[in-house]
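= Tokenised fold =
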Amino acid sequence: MARRKIIPDNDVYAEIRRMIAREGERAVSFQTVARATGLAAPTLVQRFGSREAMVHSALAAGWEALEAATEAAEADAPLNAKGAQAFLKALGADTPEAADLSHLAADFRDPVLRDRADRWRQRVETAIALRLGGGAKAQEAAALLFAAWQGQRLWQPAGGKGFRLKDAVKRLSG
């Protein structure tokens, strides 16, 4: 009979993603994760097999959470320009999934995670384009909004406050 997990995998994954966000992927080892979670390093080895598998599992779980958040944001955002802004705002909210956004693609050498990131970007751009009326012009505007939004997410923590998403939506949807 398998033993009950004291600390669920999702809690371990969240800690690993926090470590990547704070210190980079090199900070993640069985020993550092063991210290952060209270689990024994051999327990982590038994669960994941290798450090690479542990990191990959944590990033894959982060993508699953982000995809679920994206689906919820799509369902809630109206099909108009304000809906495009609301959709991106919901994805950029202070949630664990949004906080992970810049770190989920921590290692684009992994083709599975790279492909997942690309599919997610395409999904987000399609959802924005739909809210901007569809068509080639809306798709182009959506790609620009996505890039601007990602730039905003990157620079906001460093004090970059000059860009306002709603102004970009107005310019590109008008």
User: Anything to note?
Assistant: The mean pLDDT is 83.
